[in-house]
Amino acid sequence: MKINKKLAPIPLFVSLALTGCIEVDDDSNDGVVDALNQQNAVLTEQNNLLAEQIENNQTSVTLAGAVVDTRTDIPLVGLNVAVYQGNTVIAEGVTSENGGFNLEGLPASADLTVVVSSTDESYLERAFFITTGPVSAGEGYDDIGIIGVSAPVEVTFSVTDAESGEAISGLSFVGFSYSGSSTSSVFDFAHESEFNDETQTYQITLPRDLNVTLRANIDIDSDGEADFDFTNNGNVNISGDTLFIYDASEFTEEEISLSQYEGEAAEEKTVVISLIDNMGEPIAGAEFMMDMFDETYISEYDEESGSYELVIPFDGGISFEMSSFQVGDITYSTGSVNLSRSTRYATGETSINVNTSGFESNNYYTVADSEVINLVLVPTEVEPLATVEVITTNINPSSFAYSVYYSEAVDIELDEVSLTYDQVSIVRGNESADDSVPNGYTYILSEEANVELSQSVGLSGVKHTFTPATELLTNTNYRFAVGEVSPISGGVSANVYGDDYSFTTPTDETAEFDINALKLDNSNFYSNGSVIVSENTAGVSNSANNYGNSVSILLPTSVESLNYLIINFESYTEYGNQYAFVNSYELVRDENIFMQRMLAINVAQNESISNQSGISYLRGSTVADGEYIYRDSTGLYLEDNTAESPVSVTFSYEYQTKAGENASGKLTLPIL
Fold it and tell me: Model's pTM, two decimal places?
């Protein structure tokens, strides 16, 4: 195979070094001459070393592959394979008996074009855009695998104007059959059409067995729009100003017929609109409007009939709008109406389809196609859009006073502002004959509770501050909601987006944590062998049995005052025997509690619980009814501790409060 190699460019500093010897004139001082000669000798040695380094660092790639017939997958012998870098051929060869080729000395990490062709033109030239891999030293090897080429096929077709029947010339059809990511040289391998003036047809040579899409610009008059709208040919399509022929090598239709949509002549129609409320009373004050043909058409209101009249040009389909408007304290939303003509092909009869949006009335129906179209519309009531906006908000972290800054001075009635939270309560079936809770049931309810507020105004009405009149609960979600805001300037009074605020109060860091408040409870409805709640609220005995159950660590809410808490279990006793149980629990870390917050509820096992609050709850334990606790499972499964059968667990602990106080020790606690 013939190989073309190019010398790599020599770096500038090397070039300087290789030409850096100093000429010495012998009529000068002998000492200077000797010094310069010595310096030249050093430079020569450096030059030789650099030249050797350059020679040793040269890298190249051998490119391998095999060429086959795309239709039959048969290897092709004797096809030319040329490799281009830019416009220069840097290697070429001929495929062997198995269709293979090997081209040596190619640059590494280079964008190259592999072109396969045949001297007898039995196969159409095809380009493959590749990038060789990186090579750190020496010769690399890239196998691009099997690549396919196709025999040519001549495709001939005409393009005609459906209206005149005349041929359309002046089009240029272009297609591509290359493989890989295209480069700037892709147009060197494009398939382009020629127009035959004698036959008035387009002719193009394409690869017979490759899928090529042809495209041509049909904006013949260069006005920025396609001169034709559609074609009836199956695999021909128009998109924008471009005509596409799909699977062009198999295009056998011979003729492409192009057409333009015939614009329907506009006729005048009168749309009479009865705009009524939910009681059937007419509503005045609206305006219906349509823009068409650079003109604006606006409705007129007839006081006597209580209807709107809109006279418009109708070309088979139109749309008009109703702007939002206000009548008294009621605001109505915008709405749109679309009218389109449809034809029943069996009879040729036409009708008008009515499609509306933004109205409470029927949004799709059909009316007669007549000069006067009558419509009945019911507008949609909406909250008015305020003319004032929120600039910023903030909340005082100690007093929880909430301040809102508006874009202009406003009035806000205090009863328009609320501060609420979800208050959880427990209601039992036997507590009262007046509630709706049946016996045998306990409801966990959540209702919105209000906090009394005080109000202050600053910055001449721009700033409004709302302060809780009572102390807020710790670790509780609260919500400030501001209702209607009235601009002092006389703008629209309405709810303003962005002046509501939600927050969670912090935990009680002043609470004193006592490690002795920790409980190990198996929540089996018993404690020390005795049932905690004897019967349910229907008077039926507790159905629980005094069996072993999963043991949990229970901690009071004062654990929220800790920075960290670690429990290390060592052993447990049961049936007079001690067993090793080594396990560690990091319950609090960096003030984050890794336990489940729950509400304790004391009920019998056969009590039906209706949890309508969404809060997690714990029953069957020794925690006081209605108390919030933190729970984590230990993995132990034990019975209650009793005098006859002691059951206990021994563990060590270490914790630090948020105030920085440390404590550690060891405890042995019974299973409750």
Answer: 0.50
